[in-house]
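EI: anyone free to look at a 441-residue chain?
SC: sure, send it
EI:
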Amino acid sequence: MASEIKLQALKENVDTVEVNAIKIAAGDMVAKDQAILEVQADKAALEVPSPMAGRVTKILVKPGDQITIGQVYCVIESNGEPAASSPVKAEPAAARAPDPVPSVKKETAVPAPSRPTATVTPLHKPQQPVIERPSPAPPPAEDKIVPAGPATRRLARELGVDLHQVRGSGRHGRVVEEDIKEYVRQLASGAGMTGGTGTAPAQAPPLPNFEQWGPIEAQPLGAVRKATARQMSLAWSLIPHVTQHDLADITDLEAFRKQQAEGKGPKLTVTAFVLRASAVALREFPNFNTSIDLAGGKLILKRYYHIGVAVDTENGLLVPVLRDVDKKHVRELAEELNATAGRARDRKLDGAELKGGTFTITNLGGIGGTAFTPIINYPEVAILGLSRSRLEPVVRGGQIVPRLMLPLSLSYDHRVIDGASAARFTRRLAELLENPLMMLL
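SC: here you go
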């Protein structure tokens, strides 16, 4: 018996995924729960298990394809029971004709104590309502439960959004996270800011026909790029960004790092030292380890220090989160960072590894540049950018000497952090990096 295998829901609020790899071939025998596909859902790589055992007769997708929930991606032939996604379904209860007689008997079997005769409803007048059990009035529209998942509701609470005001784009009008973000973007653009009398948000005009000027190539956006675009648009539209720039003299740090590299263990990178320094600075400047709740009029201070590190992969930017950075030694951080970056490049990150960050570091030093303005990873309030360190002439003790200087670029949410605090924060980071032994102690 051949069964069409349809894609089941893999992640909350994700209706479309991208095929990373196909783990079987036509003609292969597969066991129940054996991985058939590897797909990209937002920024997390997930395996799609087989819902049944049997022989694969057809594979209907290829790497790079976008597939949606409910789409058939392969056919499996088996002599056993059909898969859960088989088109054979039981008849829904609503489709069966109701039996009016038992329902009447159920009403008359237990008469109400106050008016026992009022519960008798003649069979030839089924349209008359039962007096003792009137149908309740329908609730007002604002009391109806809006269909939305837990992650969507959590995002709505964080942003202070009333779900009743959001138009759902999911199946059956379900509100998804992107609906919340689009609603907030419209508010930030002016729509709804004055009780519905504000100007409508600016809409991107349609693109011109570029082919009239020459040949073009249209490449579909991958899942990672789409997720990045949504997150960056949300952060840029919500957060008033300001960037503070500074320089850290890492001459002694570089000498210490090279000395430690002669021993055994993981390679100590500048990023590992910056992770440790950031944890120290975040403890001393708690406002940088927060999220703002404008709807509730609160600033949420986090008593944990989970720092995300941006990783450049061939599929786009991923930001895995290292947990409890304040409790780990530099060497331990270097080892964990190396392993996490490897999983990110191999598309092996779990979705949980991309969540829960309180601060982010992005390092472009391996590529070049002197400074840049990184975009804050919402709902955090600050992000630190590192550019390439370079030898510069510096005055020390009345003499001009060459020193290795590391550019620091700190973007911060000006609703939460003042310019003076940002300058003190970057200066403290520079002091810690300039004195690595003090930082380690």
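EI: The two ends are 68 Å apart (CA to CA).
SC: 👍
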